[in-house]
Amino acid sequence: MxxxxxxxxSSDAAVVTLADLAxxxxxxxxxxxxxSALMGLAFLIVFVPIVTLVFTVVSKGAGIVFADFPAWxxxxxxxxxREVGPGMGPAIIGTLLITFTASVLAIxxxxxxxxxxNEYGKASRWAQIVRFMSSVMTGVPSIVMGxxxxxxxxxxxxxxxxxxxxxxACLMLPVVIRSTEEMLRLVPDHLREASYALGTSKSRTxxxxxxxxxxxxxxxxxxxxxxxxxxxxxxxFFTIGIVTxxxxxxxxxxxxxxxxxxxxxxxxxxxGAKERxxxxxxxxxxITFFFTVTARVVTARIQKKR
Amino acid sequence: MTPDxxxxxxxxxxxxxxxxxxxxxEQHDAALVASLRSGLHGGREVADRAxxxxxxxxxxxxxxxxxxxxxxxxxxxVDAIRWMGTDFWVWRRWAxxxxxxxxxxxxxxxxxxxxxxLLLAVPISLGIALFVTQIAPVWLxxxxxxxxxxxxVIPSVVVGLWGLLVLAPNITGFYGxxxxxxxGWPVLGSIFGSxxxxxxxxxxxxxxxxxITPIIVSLSREVIETTPQSExxxxxxxxxxxxxxxxxxxxxxxxGGLVGAIMLGLGRAMGETIAVALTIGSALGQITxxxxxxxxxxxxxxxxxxxxxxxxxxxxxxxxxxxxxxITIVVNTTATAIVQRSQKRTRGAV
Lengths: 306, 350
Prior knowledge:
The structure holds two protein chains of two kinds.
Chain A: H1 6-10, H2 18-21, H3 27-66, H4 71-74, H5 89-121, H6 125-138, H7 142-157, H8 161-186, H9 189-197, H10 202-230, H11 234-239, H12 258-266, H13 271-305
Chain B: H1 3-8, H2 24-37, H3 44-84, H4 87-90, E1 94-95, E2 100-101, H5 104-135, H6 138-153, H7 156-181, H8 188-191, H9 201-224, H10 229-237, H11 242-271, H12 274-279, H13 298-306, H14 311-349
Antiparallel strand pairs in B: 1-2
């Protein structure tokens, strides 16, 4: 294209065309591309540990998990580290039981708390304090939570799965509150107003209109909280103890869980125990990924609906 | 108008007016009208108020738990702190057989590994967050967010296991090279000091960096995305390149939030227990700039020494937990305040 610019014609100066005005490959552009490349590189740098980590866990863990198939999931844990071979049943059951109990404790409380923040408290001073403190609580180290439950619960009632569940519930609570409040905030006000206009009371409106509208989002937030809780190790040390037999009773007697088994097997010098640690790691990753991917699928479905 | 405001103006609407500010007679009238209107559901208001109270109580649980944590931590650590006095915090000597408990070296280890983790994680996380939000095409954006989210849920004990059994044995060669190369340099010489260990401050820092990267990425992504489109377009319209647009519009706009995100990452790194316990090397009394030396951190010591501890030692360990709690609370409170303030500001601007 060679459109001649008017002013250039009248004078004797050189004719300026649009091609001249187009940006040239200057230092500024090079710098911009360079910085973009660096940012992309940052992602690749993170990609390396993820890939090696997942690859190692799968390659070292798959062998023992799938050796004479259901044995890994059903057999008891070998008492001696020297012993080779599978058996992580008690820890798998323990993890599922404790995480489930923690969810039962934390999710209803968390959702109600979020309902308070978004539907009742709103911008009131008390609600703001609660909101602020719940984000502070998200940062309480898990080991502090474990010791806290040890002092208030385990010292009195002894080691049990329930103590672990209490500690995990304390860790989950602020996460559930935050994610649920975000979701409630997305529910448009006209839905609430329509419900009030029909003469419905506030509590009924929340139960039948607001919560169902936000339901998928709440589910996805809770699943992520569960995934996080299932992988927590530190609080379990002080609260559940460690056993090698299945203990289906959450409320009494010491229990065990996958993270605790990974930790206690990691430091041994025996190959059999180390292999079991990898197997437990693979099982644990599979469990947390399952919850995360389900949460993702739920979120994706909501987005499609919109 | 929301129903809350309705009730405040004392109209006999639904839901009924709140107890404050209305006289009991007015309240009674309003309630009567409301119940007549809605077809005489007498118990409804009670249910309504009960629901509100229950939800308020659940919200307050957060405060109760936090307060209870503070009380129990202080109450249980009082024995050890009385026994040691301020020596508890200012001495590095940790000698349980002699009932001498100084936690300074563990405080140092916690802070040092967290700082290393931040130095590694912050540039990478901000790079990823900017790349995902400003540069990557939409399809790639989705894939990257997915990968980062998966990284976020890998349990810390698994990262620790990998750090202990894969990273630590394989990285010693590199550490040796670092130590030799920087030998005699002014600052780097003491950071990459002699006698490198596989399990060391740096290994723990790397493992922590892997764990806090997804947190910083997702928080800063949220902040960056609040930059108004108009400001970015204005920069581009003035002839700015993409990088100049990021420096001129995006970063100034989200600075506060980014600082908050980094501090939340810091809080996370300091509280992390298991991954550090597995990779830091469990050496007592280490206070050294040498990142290649073994050390210990507060949470790692608590886990490792809890099992065989007597009453006084347990009290000392809880005292350590309390110290950790106080440090993380200070960091997190500041971070949260910064984030909330910047959110308020950016929302106001839109």
